[in-house]
Amino acid sequence: MRVGRLRRAHARSGRHDSVPILQEGSAGVKITPSSRVLSMLGEIDFDEWQCVAELVDNPFDDFLDILRSGVEWPDGFTVSVTLPSSPKGVLEVRDTGRGMSKDRLARAVRAGWSGNDMHDKLGLFGMGFNISTARLGRRTRILTTRAGDTEWIGVEIDLDQIKDDFEAKDIVEPKDDLSQHGTRIIVDRLHGTRAEWLRRNGASLRNILGSVYSWILTEHPFDLYVGGTRVKPVRHCRWNDDRYVLYNGKERIPAYLPIDEKLQDGIACRDCGEWQIGSGEVCSVCGSGNLSVRERRIHGWLGVQRYLDKTEYGIDFLRNGRKILRWDKQLFTWNNPEGREGDKEVPEYPVELAHQGGRLIGEIHLDHVPVTYQKDAFEYGDRSWLAAVELLRGVAPLQPKRAPGYLENDSPLALLFKGFRRNDAGLRCLVPGDGNKPVHADTRDWGRKFQAGVSEFQTDEHWWQAVLRHEEIKKQGKEAKTAASVPAQPDEQAVLGALGMPASIPASGTAQPENGPKAVSTVPAPAVAIKERAETRGERLARYEGAALPHAYLSRSFGHPELGYVKVRTLLLKPGERLLDDNGLHVPVLLDQRSGNELAALVDPEHAAFRRFGTDYADLLLVELAAVLKVRARSDWSPSQLVAAIRAESLQDSALDGTTVGAEARDLLAEIRERVAEALDRSGGYTTAYGHLSKEEKTATEEAMIAAGRVGLIGRLGLDSGFVHHVPALALVRLVETMPASFMDGAAFRGPYTGVSSPSGKALSLARVTGCLADVATLGTFAGEATAPQLRRARLSIALLRDELAGEE
């Protein structure tokens, strides 16, 4: 069978003095390549998974054709990939498709040929097949058969044997069952490094293919097996369709935005794939007359992931159901047409809290946009791609006020950015928390359980309940603070008794007149004493648990390699309940053994240890757990050694060090900068605010903008609020102190100011903000030099300042 013969091409050209003209009818120059060309295809940069995907694309194309035709297909749609079991093993891809005729097979393996429509198919059998097989191994055999054929027919391409005549060896195998159908591709004499990767990375390969083909595997009854294990589609862990946030307390922004934009139909060449400008009868690129009118449509969705991740966020772009780009982040960068060199591309998400990662995601189908031959990128210069980018993210920056001259960006991505760019815990940003701060590590762990198929985590209910629990715990904390600050009311009846007055006098204090009718005293008959059944321990604990809220941060595994581990579910009692132990004593923490290594930890937030002395829940929980683990491990460690070791192992993110607390401080400062900038934009006070900066602060602001690549905005200093994101942290404190009316009363901070009548009241309300802000700004700037007491003070100031942010009530 002859493979890869190139057809003679006739060139059309205009007349140039130095270029000879090929006369009509003259013989062309034969440019048939050397047989080494096939071998050199293996040098093209394809990852191992891409090679396998090329061999999976074609049977999936066949399956899709069968579905479109409406033909019954009782044998199912299955592709099986057998991985090499040793360095000298083979890779085999087998499918249950229709199989091919001899003529179709001959064309399918011809280098550079494709019988596939450039717009409808995943694969281009010819070149994709030759590149992937040559990169995997030195010999490839392809066998195919149709239902009713008497044998398997095929061809063997041996790169060590094939010569310049490009003749490949025909092969035939007997067929046991005439009803058999499908195609098998067997690659052997594998390249060592690639064989080793395939042999050791079956799980990784399944995960990648599960992501690349997730839409196809979800939407169609196709089965893909790799190494004998079914490939599961890797789905997005996004918030449900009905979740939303309220921006500025009134604008409802959903966490899921469906996208479906029908563009004007276009004319495309079925041979080269090029879209045509105008309505000519032949392709403007290849001259083919094989043109057709095709649909152009942008559809899919944009949404919000239930957790933040440093890499797994961004938008997936698909063509014909296969993902070309995964976790793509280029729409999060604004290309500033007026920017200077080095300042044209402006990253917009995530910026302020970039070290935490992002959570904006999406899945967009662009079947009409051309891709590169490697199928790992779109043709970014193509007008179809540029039109899709404009539709999804707009031409203006996501925050237009940072680039004057642009109208507000109302694109779908800009809407999501506005509602979900912040990561504060609670309903405002749709982020689970522990009553104090977000629990990003926990939510990422829940995301892994979602992908693992754990039933409890398939919907967003677990995340949603954690958001609600955060709000409830935070509400309880504020109520407790309020209650602690109000003097206890005297017992009115006890006071009356002490004054020698009857305790039955009405609360109004009005006595009955002496000459009036005497009140008849009705003495109730003595009640019959009934001995109540004592509440069992199990009933008491069940009652506690029914009146408690889970504490997300402290619900985790606790322990140490030397002591073993226990899984703890921590519950906070609601107000009104007193936590009593088996002896009836009021205790702050009570442990209850559950099955195996599982414990329930009940915490009473109203216990004096927490209310009066400010002890952290974790401190006393660790004391209780240390006693349990000491007995279990028969350890001779001292109590303090036990508590220190368990804390270091199990609560590493609570470490009191400059790096950890400094990052928390900078995160909060970034949030405050954002709110201060928005407040100045609303009031138009940015010129006044910039004027309050000292000369040194203005210089430091310019240097920070240069370091951040915002050189183009230096000329606008004081003309908009952009400088706020780059001023020294301590300058923020002075801005709030000098312009309190611009930032209080719910503008950036919730405390009252303008409506407070007394100067001392104004000063007190302002000091609640600026005192904590000064601590946070200092720590965010000089964290590495802070002492342990300073770090503790800063962490407390961070918690208190979060409570002062507007919109956090």
Describe this structure in words.
Strand 1 and strand 2 form a beta hairpin. The protein is of the alpha+beta class and 809 residues long. The strands form 6 sheets. An 8-stranded mixed beta sheet has the order 5-4-3-6-2-1-7-8. A 5-stranded mixed beta sheet has the order 11-14-19-15-16. Helices cover 35% and strands 18% of the residues. Helix 15 (617-633) packs across helix 16 (639-650), helix 17 runs parallel beside helix 23 and helix 20 runs antiparallel to helix 22 (759-782). The model is unreliable at 2-28, 112-116, 486-501 and 503-523 (pLDDT under 50). The longest helix has 26 residues, at 658-683. The protein starts with 35 loop residues before the first helix and ends in a 5-residue tail after the last helix. The radius of gyration is 36 Å and the shape is globular.
Q: Give the mean pLDDT.
A: 82
Low-pLDDT regions:
2-28, 112-116, 486-501, 503-523
Q: Calculate the terminal CA-CA distance, rounded to whole Å.
A: 77 Å
Largest sheet: 8 strands, mixed
β-strand amount: 15-25%
- Overall geometry: globular
What is the helix content? 25-40%
The order of strands across the largest sheet is: 5-4-3-6-2-1-7-8
Structural class: alpha+beta
Number of helices: 23
> Radius of gyration in whole Å, from Cα?
36 Å
Number of strands: 24
